[in-house]
């Protein structure tokens, strides 16, 4: 009988950590946008007014103390039309690197950033061709987001977990397709409506609108 993959063996459960204390997995940009000197990211690597607006929005969004997000996707500053389009369609938001960055920051304020990190990791896995690399990345994704021992475990139902455990016997670029869709749906139905009403998104709309009128 074929063995079901259940992740690495462990006799102890790691010390629990709050979600904002975990270190996100490094991900590669999913889009082909080229960054410029005023990239739309949350590393505060430049002192432009864009980052100042972003900082004010971030401080207004929550009273909790959060670190800025590392390893964000490099991308161009979004246009007013792009930002407005994110309110019309979750698909548009998720297909835009800048949209994913700002949505990821919002998820961080709700301590659910791992949902976006998992989705991005699955997208990265789909771009791999080398069998050894696919095996390694699939196991890293499992240990980081599927294992019940991980502080970044995403919320999946038992059916999807069973499917993943079977597919991990022979990992492929599609091992996590069902799980990725379930997390995408969760973000769409649960987090996205709150994001549209958040201080982060409202401040971003005002910022790009003001920048456009001044140019």
From TrEMBL:
One of its GO terms (cellular component) is membrane. The keyword Ribosomal protein does not apply. The keyword Secreted does not apply. Residues 1-30 are annotated as: Disordered. Keywords: Cytoplasm, Glycoprotein, Lipoprotein, Membrane, Nucleus, Palmitate, Signal transduction inhibitor, Ubl conjugation. It is a lipid-anchor. InterPro entries: RGS, RGS_sf, RGS_subdom1/3, RGS_subdomain_2. Residues 89-205 form the RGS domain. GO terms for biological process: G protein-coupled receptor signaling pathway; negative regulation of signal transduction. It comes from the Eukaryota. It is found in: Cytoplasm; Membrane; Nucleus. Its main location: cytoplasm. Pfam families: RGS. Forms a complex with G(alpha)z/i2 subunits and mu-opioid receptors; the formation of this complex results in mu-opioid receptor desensitization. Interacts with OPRM1. Inhibits signal transduction by increasing the GTPase activity of G protein alpha subunits thereby driving them into their inactive GDP-bound form. Binds selectively to G(z)-alpha and G(alpha)-i2 subunits, accelerates their GTPase activity and regulates their signaling activities. The G(z)-alpha activity is inhibited by the phosphorylation and palmitoylation of the G-protein. Negatively regulates mu-opioid receptor-mediated activation of the G-proteins. This is Regulator of G-protein signaling 20. It comes from Chrysemys picta bellii.
